[in-house]
Amino acid sequence: MSAASHTVVIRGTGSYAPAKVVTNHDLSKTIETSDEWIVTRTGIRERRVAGRHEDPSDMAAEAGRAALKAAGLTPADIDAIIVATMTGDLPFPSTACLVQHKIGARKCTAFDLAAACSGFVYGLEVASSLIRAGVHRHVLLIGAEKLSSILNWQDRTTCVLFGDGAGAVILSRGEGPGARNSIIGIRTGADGEDAGLLYQHAGGSRHPATADSVAHGQHFLRMNGREVFKHAVLVMEKTATELLKEHGYTAADVECVIPHQANRRIIETMAERLEVPLDRFFINLDRYGNTSAASIPIALDEAARAGRLRPGGLVLLVAFGAGLTWGAALLRWPAGA
Ligand SMILES: CC(C)(COP(=O)(O)OP(=O)(O)OC[C@H]1O[C@@H](n2cnc3c(N)ncnc32)[C@H](O)[C@@H]1OP(=O)(O)O)[C@@H](O)C(=O)NCCC(=O)NCCS
Asked: Looking at residues 243-249, what average pLDDT do you find?
C-alpha cells in the first residue's frame, strides 16, 4: 500500500455541554426580547453557558475524553490534536496544547485551526489528509467554543443566537483489508471580501485591548445578520450539491444531513433547495443555539448516540461561518463508530 492511499475511519465521537442552561425566557428578563420572537426567527429555545472558570480547553478535554472512550483508545495513542475554535482560552499558546496537557496526551503534535463556524469541516479535511498521507495514525479533532465570553449580553440581535460547548471525533488510519473509508469527500471554501459581515473588532494585534476598546465594547462579536443569512443559504446548498455531484451521488442518497446549527430557517430553506425532507436533517439548535465550531461535532455525536446514523449510510455535513468560510463533508458512517 502506498503512503498516499491509507483509508480514514471515524472511530469515535464525544461531546460536552456546560451544565448551565439559559432559556429564552431568562434572556427576556434582561433584554427586550421574547421566547416567541427567538423561536420564530431562529428555532432556538435555550443555550448552554460555560461557568466563569470553565474554559474552552476544559470543554474540549471532556469531549475529547468521551471520543477516546468511544474509540477504545488512550491519550497515549493520539498522534495529533486539532482544536477548531474562535474563542480559544488565550491568544497563545494554542488551546490544543492546553487540551494535550489536560488529557495527558504527552507526545503528540497539537495546534488550533481558525475557520469560525466552518472550523470542524476544515479540521476534517486537514486531519483526514494527514492520515491518508501516512503522517499520523490517530487524530483527535475537536470543535470547542465559549462564545458567551465575546457576546454583548445587552445586544439582542446577537446574544440570543449563540451558546457554548465542545464536540470531538477520533479519526484513525484504517487497519486491515476490510477497513472502509469513512470520508468520501470534503469541499471547503472562503471569501475574505465579506470578512466584515461577522467579526470581532478588537483584541487582535490590529486593535489590541485598551481601556478605550473595552469601554466601547469592541471585543464583542459583531454581525450583519440579514446578509449572513442570505450568504449561508446560498453557499451551503451550492457546496453540498457540488460535493455530492463530484462523487456521483444526489441529495436523495443521503440518509442524514448534519448542518451547522445556526438558525432553523436557514436549515429549512436549505432542505427545500436540496429537496431533502427535513426529517433527514439532524437538528439540536433548539437546545444549544449556535456553538460555532462545536456545533457540527456536538450534533454528530448526538446523532450517533441516538442511532440516527446507520452503519454504511451516507452522512452529509454542511458548514458556514465568518471569514466568510464554508465547507461540506460526505461521510460513509462506519460500522463500530
Ligand atoms: C439574526 C436574525 C435571527 C435576525 O432575523 P431577521 O428576521 O433578519 O430580523 P431583522 O434583523 O430584520 O430584525 C427585525 C426586527 O427584530 C428586532 N430584533 C432583533 N433581534 C431581536 C430579538 N432578539 N428580540 C426581539 N426583537 C429583535 C430588530 O431590532 C428589528 O426591529 P426593527 O424592525 O424595529 O428594526 C437573522 O438575520 C439570522 O439568523 N441571521 C443569520 C445569523 C447567523 O446564523 N449567524 C451565524 C452564522 S455562522
From this structure: 97
